[in-house]
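Honest question from a wet-lab person: if I give you the sequences of every part of a complex, can you actually get the arrangement of the whole thing, not just the pieces? Trying it with mine:
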Amino acid sequence: MIVPQRGLYNELFASKAMHEIFSERTHVQAILDFEAALARAEAGAGVIPEETASAIAAHCRAKRFDLERIAEGTAVAGNVAIPLVAALTDLVARTDPAAAPYVHFGASSQDALDTALVLQLHKALDVFDAELGCLCDALANLVRRHRRSVLLGRTSLQPALPVTFGLKAAGWLSTAVRGRERLRALRPRVLVVQFGGAAGTLASLRHRGLDVATRLAQSLNLGVPDVPWHSARDRLAEVGAALGLVVGGLGKMARDLSLMTQREIGEAFESQAHSRGAPSTMPDRQSTIAASAILAAALRVPGLVATLFAAMPQEHERGLGGWQAEWDSLPEICLLTSGALMHAVRVLSGLRIDTERMRANPEATGGVILGEAVALALARHVGPQKAQALVERACARAVETGLQLRDVLETERELTNHFSVAELQELCDPSFYLGLADDLSERALAEHARIAGGSEK
Amino acid sequence: MIVPQRGLYNELFASKAMHEIFSERTHVQAILDFEAALARAEAGAGVIPEETASAIAAHCRAKRFDLERIAEGTAVAGNVAIPLVAALTDLVARTDPAAAPYVHFGASSQDALDTALVLQLHKALDVFDAELGCLCDALANLVRRHRRSVLLGRTSLQPALPVTFGLKAAGWLSTAVRGRERLRALRPRVLVVQFGGAAGTLASLRHRGLDVATRLAQSLNLGVPDVPWHSARDRLAEVGAALGLVVGGLGKMARDLSLMTQREIGEAFESQAHSRGAPSTMPDRQSTIAASAILAAALRVPGLVATLFAAMPQEHERGLGGWQAEWDSLPEICLLTSGALMHAVRVLSGLRIDTERMRANPEATGGVILGEAVALALARHVGPQKAQALVERACARAVETGLQLRDVLETERELTNHFSVAELQELCDPSFYLGLADDLSERALAEHARIAGGSEK
Amino acid sequence: MIVPQRGLYNELFASKAMHEIFSERTHVQAILDFEAALARAEAGAGVIPEETASAIAAHCRAKRFDLERIAEGTAVAGNVAIPLVAALTDLVARTDPAAAPYVHFGASSQDALDTALVLQLHKALDVFDAELGCLCDALANLVRRHRRSVLLGRTSLQPALPVTFGLKAAGWLSTAVRGRERLRALRPRVLVVQFGGAAGTLASLRHRGLDVATRLAQSLNLGVPDVPWHSARDRLAEVGAALGLVVGGLGKMARDLSLMTQREIGEAFESQAHSRGAPSTMPDRQSTIAASAILAAALRVPGLVATLFAAMPQEHERGLGGWQAEWDSLPEICLLTSGALMHAVRVLSGLRIDTERMRANPEATGGVILGEAVALALARHVGPQKAQALVERACARAVETGLQLRDVLETERELTNHFSVAELQELCDPSFYLGLADDLSERALAEHARIAGGSEK
Amino acid sequence: MIVPQRGLYNELFASKAMHEIFSERTHVQAILDFEAALARAEAGAGVIPEETASAIAAHCRAKRFDLERIAEGTAVAGNVAIPLVAALTDLVARTDPAAAPYVHFGASSQDALDTALVLQLHKALDVFDAELGCLCDALANLVRRHRRSVLLGRTSLQPALPVTFGLKAAGWLSTAVRGRERLRALRPRVLVVQFGGAAGTLASLRHRGLDVATRLAQSLNLGVPDVPWHSARDRLAEVGAALGLVVGGLGKMARDLSLMTQREIGEAFESQAHSRGAPSTMPDRQSTIAASAILAAALRVPGLVATLFAAMPQEHERGLGGWQAEWDSLPEICLLTSGALMHAVRVLSGLRIDTERMRANPEATGGVILGEAVALALARHVGPQKAQALVERACARAVETGLQLRDVLETERELTNHFSVAELQELCDPSFYLGLADDLSERALAEHARIAGGSEK
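Yes, you can. This is the full assembly:
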């Protein structure tokens, strides 16, 4: 087998757990799990004898199959299920010829493939919920730890009012919590069997179709959908979109961190300096590997989500091209999401924050970011218009001269008339103009606690 | 003002109602609604005098503003709120100079713009819920009317087992119902005010920030989010994705209908033949205008959704480029969704179904689509393997000779030994091999009833 | 190593040749080819001794490296070049310690990785040109063979005037020829080395930088770009887009073929009926595997192209996330293009055309598609308006009664006054109303010949 | 007419010139230009009388048509050409009833609409070439002006070797030059008439079809394609992609500039500080409006390009949905490209560069970015390994102590043994370690000159 180039990047862009879930071995096993469960459900419903079911189920082990041959068969047959079911039938025929005709009985290839995918998504969603739990916990800790860490707020990459690093992290947390909520909400819609037979009517099972479907779903720990969904693909596109929202949120965090890690800003760092690739003459060059991997995922997932959406208008009872377009796209989204989550959790566990630099950076603006605070305070004495005019003039002077605003203000009689030097110092201190940063952060923590408390299923 | 070319297609690609909601007049009014509600909330919280609030609110009428000038100001200032707030301040200053400094007090442009968008989305979601209700009702009627209409099932555009047209419509309904469900589920997450001031801390309102936020949200009939979301954009991307799932589902219906309308298939038609553009020498050329418009939407929305997702990693406290990328994209998705829904509802109201053609098309396959049915029945007498071999041979002969399968079977002793001619006729009759088509359709109707019963909010 | 699920579909969705080109072995070898060529170029330019270059080059064999370890190193270092260069340095150090410091001398990881990618693209473009040559030849044959095969023209999936199958194929050919032309045109822009050192200035090579660059490029059979392009990524996005245009064109062909293969239309087939996966009771069910694979590619490539475009705004001298987003995306586009081409060539080599059905389908419209022809002929006698009115009436009657238009016309005195029965028959014969179908097809063949004659480089 | 909300942003996101080209008036006029040219070409070829052509052409003025009514007709007929041709026919019938049947003779709606679009693209491509010319000239000036302006090179947003601002601008120029080259190269492929009649055969014109096509093309200053391209859409997708490459390149420039404008970096600014929207207490807050608009375009265009690509697989002789999906998408790409170009040209005309800050920023890294330079120089005396070890130690000390590297080096005997203090100062001076920055910039200027010299057609 030719090992694809992308394999070299597997461990960079995806987690090992997700790789296992979307490995060829797991996929084949998931198809076989469907076949075994189907046989047992049919036995339970009286469609086939118990022994037949047992004979079939006994062979449903991925390791008994030559996957290279299955891949070759796939190229000819158009999907994995066809050669796999054929190979399973051969195996069964060797030990119990009478059981062979009942392998895959009443099901279509798509029943097997879609249900297998859902079984894999089930595992993936469990992993994502757990990973998002870790991420949210780490973010919540960050929020709590930095509720008083003054940080320069920046809008359009320009200085704005002071904020706290806790509030910034609360924003990241808030999106992650909603992401987790959405992934939980879609479970009942998505975690359902696909089972309809050749055209979605379960015709070959006659009146026992729903009984078989129910038993099948139960044994696979899935729901029974209203109707088979061979060409109604909104469920899968929904999973892709919900993961895309998670990745986009992580991308926002990664972008912020990468900007804060710039040499000239120096507020936050991806754990120890000097990553492996850095030239050893630049010991303080910071690693941005996690941010790179997350931002790469945030660039790649939107196109993959668009593919799932564009593939939705599938023809009649089974799509021609649209269905096939999903096969790599949704697993790819899961892999990239896992990688982004993995890096996010890692970054947070080793994140170094330089609160001194955080405090120094607003200072370096000459304090004019506090102009609004001063103007508001002064307005109470001289009215808003006059206050605004006075402070504007002072700020302009601070910028021109390079003096700190507080030093300029101390020379302005209109201000010293109303405020003591200590009061002026306080007005010009970012930590006294943080508004509700802390209360708002608290609200994000409460949302996290609310979701974290809920069961995932 | 230059009227853009796309205006010529407005009524083709979007509904009038949605055009109103995303008109410049409505957008400006929504911003002004925010400003008025803000003033009143601040008065209620004791931040500004009641008269000041009244003075401000009195001017918050879109028709008082010169929108061409606002557009010019937008090109300079970078967003609509800046010139609009400036113009509002001028108006207020003329009637109540003391109130002027309190226009937009404590808010940022983005507070106004995002909340205005949410107000518009609120209206849009109401319209979508109603439209989806109409669509689902129409689809439910279609399902009920055609629960016995035999139709050739087609997988990969090739003949498969028979289905009912009711079941096909149930598949469309099922996706539409989930689409409606998702749009309802996101309301509490999405329908929240944006209110954080210059950097998201509400600093200028000091301890009264949350009180103002709560009053503001209440008067706009919105929720209060945990934290301001100036650069946490998952809510908006979520709306785009949920609408994309609706449009993809409509695209599936439109694709099916357009295929059924082909001259050689002739099963379903977009109301009267001979649309306006058809050459008058081809009176039976069918209109496909609705299908075209819906499929066009299904091709365009995925790219727009991808834009919203790709724009998520926005910098620090306000994005630079990402935020601006949303401004047209989300309204565009709403417009295209409205158009797709409009055409879908129209098509269903005038849909002509030719049940005779539906029944004739499977017949034209020579009846081999019933081979499975015959083989299953025969298996009870001769075992599955022998039955399969016999029926395969008969089907091959039917295809070669062009005879109907039932006619071939009547000449096969192995079959006439076990079945009477009447029984063979029944085995080869598609309407006796529809499996659970009807039960499954019923399940989709039940899901529709469940959702339709729920309140939309 | 975990083998990914997608591996099961490799042979369905991509060609073996392209898999080789984008295998991990080939990628690593391409990086090593860069390193060997760099050492030799530096020796040639007098930067390092010849023996040092030889010592380095001698180890530049992919098979000497443990790729699993390189993959592990990649996860830590952030790209493949870092651990690979480290491993190469170790190897060199063992045989020639003095040479070790000159491994990768003056180059950055990105120099190695980008040039390796370009080397792989070079091979891929050669393969694509050859494959497109085969495709175009096959299409040209199809055009020639079917220049007289009457086919129902279909617009918006509804009957239009008659065309020839040759003209339809000429349309496919025309797009393929332009696709080939574009891929040739971009070669000089794209097939250039990446070589700039740590920040694009080649500083460590001092005045010998350009000499080394030129020698490096020459020995790799690439060009020297104006400036290093570490963060100017239009070249790569251009390759993706040009391939996307090829795939979109193949998608158009596949869509047409899949529609022509519908049971009710039955005009064209993907070689033998009864693909492996078809139920054996439906021997005339047609394979659509090639069309599915091509249409799946046509759905997936646009999202991948969008990713490359969205990744273009890369930061400063090397992107953070944007660069990484390209790594899988461009190879993936190449793989999917190769698969679509492979299936297209295969389909054309085995394509079965049913010219009788092609001729029968327009007949089944009752001949009204020739109404325009009759009206034009009649207009010469009675003027256009009267002619139009008469023919419209006749067409309406043909549709109502189910008669053929020619039979209706024979009963209309206004027509028999001017035309003999034989003339009316001819007017109603699609093969006499094919306009310039043949001349236009000839023009497409001429374009193909023009391009096919040109050298590919 | 409802004016859409996006109208408020027209002047922010697109140029006035491009708005004119894609206005409804221009589009309607372009369709009418096609109709007039068609009539004249048919007269020239002897298909219709000269007077008939004149009678038709006389009415082909957009201002004679009620565009609101055309829009209404469009919603019913499915495209603009149908109601417009009907209205034109009515006008002609009033003045010359005999000419009326020859309006639009032999053409299809799509012939008119596609050719109109190509006529608009022709104008757009002329504008883009001119605008790109201005942009490239401005960039070339920037390159020339800053060939000696030392700038900190930054890879992955971390400090790397020094570069020049000239070289950075040369990278922007290089992409823009290639963008211009591509747009010129596609003109002969794209600037062709669409003319094939109802199904692409020109049947109603009989043997005169190509004569008419040639005259039509000539009078519209377009080429004649090999075959009609009603459902072969690669030409249009190609235009979208080529513009996408331009926008992506501008996005890269905008991203760089926005990063350089950060308060803590302060190297480059979008003309005067204090944009209209900035709070007046922050007089040095920089405008980022141009960067925002460009980056927004760079986020939006990829999705629109993907739509054009995804729409390519259009059915048979005219697409159902795919064609309609292009109608807004390609004009939208043109508008966004025009806006990005407009802002780019504006930014460059007012760009303020702070070369002192540029020089100070590398200084602030403590000079360790020159470690490589020192190590290379030292290697000539003590061999590479020892040199590397010595310099690494010195750099580590510089970082720990906060001293400049040059000051650390002066205390190292191993270095003072080989270098004088002046030599060490020079080794640690970024302006002596710029490699080929200037030569490479020169090469980009040469490419620009080469393209600028070429005719645009």
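Two things worth pointing out. Chain D has a mean pLDDT of 95. Residues 172 and 253 of chain D are 6 Å apart (CA to CA).
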